[in-house]
Amino acid sequence: MGKSRARRFRTAPFSPTGPEQRREEESGPAEEPAAELLEKLQHPSAEVREYACASISKLLQQKHVIPAFLQRDVVRCLGPLLMDHSLAVRETAAGALRNLSACGGFEVCDDMVTKDIMTPLVALLKECSTGLDANQLSPKKCRETNKNYIEDIANEAINLLWNVCECNNTAVSIFNKEGCLESVLHYMKKFSTNVDLAISVANCLQAVTEDNPDLLSSFNASAQQILESVMLCPDSTMKHILLRTLIAGTIWNIKDTIPPGSLGSMVNAILKIFSESLAIDAGETIIRMNEAERNRLKLAAEAETEENMSDVMDNNGLIEDDDMEEIPKGKVRREDDISDLLPSDKWELKEVTALLTAQQTALEIIVNMCCSEDLSDDEWEELSSSDESDLFMENSYNEGSGLLMSPLCLSDEVNSAFLNNLIPKKILEKTAFPNSVALDICMHNPSWKPLIKKLNAVQCRALTCLHSILLVSDVDCLGGPSALQSLAQHLSELVFAK
Asked: Could you tell me the domains of the chain?
């Protein structure tokens, strides 16, 4: 299988406090020592265990505290809680382990697999899959919050599975052996009502299908039909665009299971999805979504002001009439209440992030389409940036080593789909500088500032992708000599840009 040791696109960890508070706390001391929190995981009260898991989850987002938890065997402490009788504990335990795997790095993921995290994780995934159709909920909490615990637990568990499978070959082997694909695909059926869960599944599928021939036989007609139904989903939100892009990448990974007669239509469908993703202007999307966020917050603030005024009038009435004082709603907080630890709702920011991730993913897969399977991603990146790349490629062609496709040797299906969907043109557009107005918005908004890095990542991947296309196609693919001249001028501006 040969899993790469470089993570491509990491989703944000399960964040009880939200991204802003997480950054503020990175340098601060832990409020409770690891030993005390881990001891609370054994408490007979489910609420105390839930609060302990949420607190551990928050702390594990700070890399400097991870060793303290690892020394106290946090994996074996949290692992059994994945099958706790309390659904809330299961979710927060899975979230804590997800954070550990996302923030701890490859060595931590390896250690988690060594300590047998896969056994309770696989059991949890299969149980959630069985309960998904029954829509098993926690009656007390769901009446209050309309929360579907089964789907939320599955989302955390799938992200944990994705992290460890992307880093560890043994985890992928267990995925194959235990027949996890069936359970994972079962979650995908919820894509029309729970796109976040579907995106988590799609990320996991793309990871486990990469260089995993042992899994190909499991993709029967029913499995492929599920993936096809997602690709045909007409929803136009950025999250749905990301979902379709990830599924297209998965189908490319399992292309050997596609009948030869259907290969052309499959490639065209994949590149059509990539084309739709790349056609969207990320800068304009940032401007539009930021405006939507401002309007939403403004309306929310006005509504809150009206509600507070109403509460004051009601309370004054109570004091005058009954000589009693009523505590305003929301002011009573139990010691183990975790309501303030749940992630904040920033759907506009999530939409932009989904778009940029979709574009990064599409560009990466296009590079893979142009690159021989015998050349690893790391080798391709090194080759693309090497001063000796031209000499290396010339030698490769002369010696017939097959490391790279020679010019004009793209398959007819891929070449036709490239041109029909204007892929080279749209990649060329993505090499342009990010929108200056959008950059200014991100610079002056702390929660949006991480988008700058993603904008630059899309531009860099577009340049690498453009390089790969020039290697396997001719100038006409980009629009002829005039387009090539414009490209040369644009690239020179990039080189001399500050």
From this structure: 32-135+148-218 (1.25.10.10), 245-302+345-370+409-497 (no CATH)
